[in-house]
Amino acid sequence: GFGDLNPTINYTGDLSNIGYGTASSGNPNLKPTESKNIDLSLEYYFDESSMVHLTGFRRDIDGLVVPFRRRITVNPPPVSGNPATDFILSQPDNASNGTLEGFEAGAKFYPKELPGFLQGFGVEGSFTYLTSEQDVPITSDSGAVIGSYRSEFYNVSNKSFSTTLAYERSPLSGRLSYAWRSGFLRGNSALSANPR
């Protein structure tokens, strides 16, 4: 969100005499995430407004935004009454690359033989399955990059489903939809509950 771009730095002094304090901020120097995409789609229309489809996709993504820590030095000391000038700054950064691939299967069906006012009702639905993997930097307590590990994408579910009951008949139009997604990683490692 916009908070990731907020340049304001909040400092906390060295409260434990470990030689540095901590700080947090957004990063106004974030760059756009870039992606190279491949999609292959098959569609079959078995009636005027009814069809099934199957789509395969792959995304090679550079510059993913992930939480990142680095050591900074600030003079004079920014925290009143605390002499710390070294801080471990936590902020988002374009420090990760990754891939995402999977498929989507879906259909929509608007039967023509429905009687009377039922004419115009239809159903639509889709199911998506994907796998994702990204490089995430590992930093030491002092903020130095000491390695990396592979992780699923943050905030991306590997399974999702949606269905819609629709009505399309002039002059009326309406939709009642339901969507579901499986759990996903939030932040560095926490598994988030499924939002319903």
Question: What does this entry look like structurally?
Answer:
The structure is a single chain. The strands form two sheets. Strands 1, 2, 3, 4, 5, 6, 7, 8 and 9 form a nine-stranded mixed beta sheet that branches. The protein has no helices and eleven strands. It is mostly beta strands and 196 residues long. The relative contact order is 0.16. It starts with 9 loop residues before the first strand and ends with a strand.
Structural category is mainly beta
Order of helices and strands: EEEEEEEEEEE
- Given the C-alpha coordinates, what overall shape results? elongated
Task: Estimate percent helicity.
Answer: under 10%
Sheet with the most strands?
9 strands, mixed
Distance between the termini: 22 Å
Q: Rg, please? A: 24 Å
Strand proportion, as a percent range, falls in over 45%
Poorly predicted runs: 188-196
Number of helices: 0
Number of strands: 11
Task: Give a short summary of the structure.
Helices cover 0% and strands 62% of the residues. With 196 residues, it is mostly beta strands.
What descriptive keywords fit this protein?
about 200 residues, mainly beta, nine-stranded mixed beta sheet, two-stranded antiparallel ribbon, 11 strands, elongated
Secondary structure elements and pairings:
Layout: E1 10-12, E2 21-24, E3 34-47, E4 50-73, E5 86-109, E6 121-139, E7 145-151, E8 159-169, E9 172-181, E10 184-186, E11 190-192
Parallel strand pairs: 2-5
Antiparallel strand pairs: 1-2, 3-4, 4-5, 5-6, 6-7, 6-8, 8-9, 10-11
